[in-house]
Amino acid sequence: MLLVIWTVVSLVTLLIEVVPGDPATVILGETATQEQIENFRAKHGLDRPAFFFSYGGEKGFVWNGGDNRYADYWLGLLQGDLGTSFRTDRPVRDMIFERYPSTIKLAVAAMLVAIGIALPLGVLAGSRKNSVVDNLASFFALLGISLPTFVIGPFLVYLFAVQLGWFSPTGSLYPEDIVLPAVTLGAALSAILTRMIRSSVIEELGEDYVRTARAKGVSERMVLFKHVLKNGLIPVVTILGLQLGVLLAGAIITEKIFNWQGLGLLLLEDGIGKRDYRLVQGCVLVISVTYIIANSLTDFVYRKLDPRIRLS
Amino acid sequence: MSRLAYIGFAIAVLFIMAAIFAPFVATHDVAAQDLAMRYFPPSAEHWFGTDGLGRDVFSRVVFGARISLEVGITVVVISAIFGTFIGSIAGFYGGLVDKFLSGYVFNVFLAFPGLLLAIALVAFLGAGQGKLIAALCVIGWVGYARVMRGQVLKVREYDYVMAARALGASNLRILFTHILPNAIQPLIVQASLGMAGAVLSEASLSFLGLGIPPPAPSWGTMIEEARQFFATSPHILLFPGIAIALTVLAFNFIGDGLREYLDPKQRRR
Question: Closest by alpha carbon to A123, among A225, A211, A261, A29?
């Protein structure tokens, strides 16, 4: 995991090198004086070599020593410093962690929505295979998977904000304003989960221990909730962890639709929109690392839940 | 194959035809603006109505299919070839090579959540169709590589591969004539699901303003432009939205259908 995090950070650090042209000119504009550009480059370390060595044309590879931007970024990072914004001169860390909680809040709410829809629907569909409920659930799942967030979002806004007036169309002023973004973001996940839980329940219902329980006269409800669900939900936990990444990326789109002041909007509007490359680096880094850590946690929980994996 | 797979196939053919023959299918010029005809609902003249600049939505959706499928097919072909190549190397050579590729390289690419790597790449590279395709390939190839690696690992243990080796066939020959053809089926499934993913990703990036810049009629861009006027003119958003959903659905149906068909264990259920 640490090796992966190291590589991800390195990639993000070096991404700034692929920007066509000079970031300083891009940000200060064509009218900037040479002095302004040099000041800017010095302030953000852009006048220093990018990496430990560089390719100097005829000279071949040139060793730049430890005094380079890549090392700078890492040194800063180890001290919890993500650099200074190219635009606002504020520490990128502060800008990100102002917004971070609202994105996590949105992602968690979306996950709860997804579980809240998928669990009853998936169990119902799985325990009554090929019934009307099952077919309806399958149809709903297909709809959720194929309809993009940016179609569901405006539709929900129209229905519940414009027509019914239950929620505000955008923003995050009131606590209930999280409902529409959370449903929008959670829709696709709930569809995937419904399918997962359904097939998981069907598979577990065919196991021997279910037959044993039934033979012992355990009620169908007890079989379903006490035996089947306990085992059937284990693979679902893994999917939840993996889907968190999709959720975090999807949050960028959802935040744009609802003008939700989270990390995604920061990345899109202040970062990419204003070409604040330092901020883009920080956002991509924080989102990726969050995802990697969440995945490792899922792995851990999975091992705890399923003793068979722990043993092997 | 399941009925759904056939439905998916029919929808896909319909969209591919629309994309190929777009100039004949479209009823109006995609770029022609008519400011006197803004936000008109669907009518006999404009089947899907007109958008905020008085452009014909039907023609734009038809030409949008061209962009979507062009991007989708290019991304699938490039990432499938590259992924298959890397995946077969990992599976065939095994050992340290496999450890490095599947244990490290694959994980690095999977460590970026969903679209984020593509968004980051486009943010630094700039927008445009070529760069969009490049970014989607960067996130797409790992899926094929993983499938291919697993297949090669399985197939290379079969007796006929050992027989070929005993006959003195070279590694390359074994890989290309014996292992690849037998490992190709799951790749087709992956390609079909990958097509759905690529179409959705292109639309998402275009929606975020990071894909194909306007005035090109990308479905994602059309939805972004139509968003504010959804309450008064829902048709401008609805038709490209339905187009995306149908295309994604079609390729998902085909992928799922093929997977069930190719996996006898699932077929019996």
Answer: A225
| Intervals of chain A under pLDDT 70 | 20-22, 45, 47-67, 171-173, 307-312
ipTM: 0.82
| Closest partner CB to A19 (pick from B124, B227, B237) | B124
Q: Which fold has domain A92-305?
A: MetI-like fold (1.10.3720)
How many CB atoms are located within 10 Å of the residue B224 CB?
Answer: 22
Quickly list DSSP for chain A: -HHHHHHHHHHHHHHGGGSSS-HHHHHH-TT--HHHHHHHHHHTTTTS-SSSEEE-GGG-EEE-TT-SHHHHHHHHHHTT---B-TTT-SBHHHHHHHHHHHHHHHHHHHHHHHHHHHHHHHHHHHHTTTSHHHHHHHHHHHHHHHS-HHHHHHHHIIIIIIIS-SS-SS---SGGGGHHHHHHHHHHHHHHHHHHHHHHHHHHHTSHHHHHHHHTT--HHHIIIIIIHHHHHHHHHHHHHHHHHHHHHHHHHHHHHHT--SHHHIIIIIIIITT-HHHHHHHHHHHHHHHHHHHHHHHHHHHHH-HHHHH-
Q: Which residue of B has its CA nearest to A248?
A: B113
Separation in Å, CA of B25 to nearest CA in chain A: 25
> Number of A:B CB contacts under 8 A?
121
Residue ranges of domains in chain A: 2-78, 92-305
Q: What is the tens place of the pLDDT at every residue in B89-105?
A: 888 888 888 888 888 88
Nearest-CB residue to B244 (from A12, A151, A155): A151
Is A279 in CB contact (< 8 Å) with chain B? no
Residue B125 to chain A, least CA–CA distance (Å): 6
DSSP, collapsed to helix, strand or coil, labels residue B28 as: coil
pLDDT tens readout for residues B188-224: 888 998 999 999 999 999 998 888 887 888 888 888 8
- Give the model confidence (pLDDT) of B74-90 as tens digits: 999 999 999 999 998 88
Is A158 close to B230, i.e. CB distance below 8 A?
yes
CA gap B184, B251 in Å, rounded: 18
Query: Alpha helix (H) ranges present in B94-179?
Result: 95-100, 106-110, 116-125, 129-155, 159-166, 171-173
**Which pLDDT score is estimated for B266?**
53
Residues of B with CB under 8 A from a CB of A: 104, 107-108, 111-116, 119-121, 123-126, 196, 200, 203-204, 207-210, 220, 223-224, 227, 230-231, 234, 237, 241, 244-246, 248-249, 252
* pLDDT for B269: 45
**Cβ contact B108–A7 (<8 Å):** yes
Flag whether the pTM goes above 0.95.
no
